Amino acid sequence: MKEVTIDNRKIGTIHEPFVIAEMSGNHNQSLDRALQIVEAAAKAGADALKIQTYTADTMTLEVEKGDFVISDQNSPWVNQSLYHLYQEAYTPWEWHQSIFDRSKELGMIAFSSPFDESAVDFLETLDVPCYKIASFECTDIPLIRKVASTKKPMIISTGMCTASEIEETVTAAKEEGCKEIILLKCTSTYPASPENSHIKTIPHMHDLFQCPIGLSDHTLGSGVAVASVALGASVIEKHFTLSRQDGGVDSQFSLEPDEFRLLVQETKKAWQAMGQVHYGPTKAEDQSKKYRRSIYLTKNVKKGETLTRNNIRVIRPGFGLAPKYYEMCLGRTVNQSIEKGTPLSWDFI
């Protein structure tokens, strides 16, 4: 499975990186803002726009204590209840059609992450071209089987997953008839640090699972994403917002439009730079070969004179004998008179 096709877009290492703008909850419960995000993402060069399909009730229970309250002091959502967080972040289902339609109008592929079976059934009515599985749902095998049964391509984030857990998920998807799978290396902290990204895993995942591999990136900036392309990532997913100053549940680790545009440009350059194993001059370098060093006459010499360090030198340009012959030429006599500035040739010796 060297490449996957989503809505006529081929994805794999021989193709330009497929860059996904994740809106998540950055619409701040405004459809107008959501559509502005779609437009800004398209203008920034995103290939796809992704949202999330759930409600607070399909995600968790309305409980405001104990396990249902975020206690991690490093979390941007510390002390919030899960229910309240998902109420704030969810994208109303009645917005989906407008968001998808506007994305398509602007040339982007539009799809979503379902978080339960009802979300899959709903997204099927909108004829989405593929599905994204979030990291926290990667081990939800019933959900994996439900999505895979649509026979549409699946993009699966693997944050926190062991190799065996990924294998279980991939096997379940294939058993239900999914033939096209993309796995994303992901670090499920928000934001994530470069040190915890471990993107050397990307080529290992490619060898292990024999499918396109990408990166769902929660780090700040674009450096990790660019590096991942050099390691074989063919998909980059980044959270996207109009402005971090406007707030929002995911704003702290989201890229603004100018940053996202740079991400698109730099990941494309990284992909172009990969090329293939190559030694020797490229066609573009042919004209530069003349600026190598070579052996030139530094003084006028007459027929029969001896070549010495006083009348030949290794200099630029490169039209004379190669520098490696310099010592061999010293002490030889010339068979004709030669002017200063003439490139030395075997014909003169």
From TrEMBL:
GO terms for biological process: carbohydrate biosynthetic process. It is an enzyme of class 2 (transferase). PROSITE patterns: AFP_LIKE (PS50844). Gene3D superfamilies: Aldolase class I (3.20.20.70), Antifreeze-like/N-acetylneuraminic acid synthase C-terminal domain (3.90.1210.10). SUPFAM superfamilies: AFP III-like domain, Aldolase. Keywords: Transferase. Its EC number is 2.5.1.97. The keyword Transferase applies. Pfam families: NeuB, SAF. InterPro entries: AFP_Neu5c_C_sf (IPR036732), Aldolase_TIM (IPR013785), PseI-like (IPR051690), PseI/NeuA/B-like_N (IPR013132), Pseudaminic_synth_PseI (IPR020030), SAF (IPR013974), SAF_AFP_Neu5Ac (IPR006190), SAF_PseI/NeuA/NeuB (IPR057736). GO terms for molecular function: N-acylneuraminate-9-phosphate synthase activity. SMART domains: SAF. The keyword Transferase applies. This is Pseudaminic acid synthase. It comes from Gracilibacillus salitolerans. The gene is pseI.
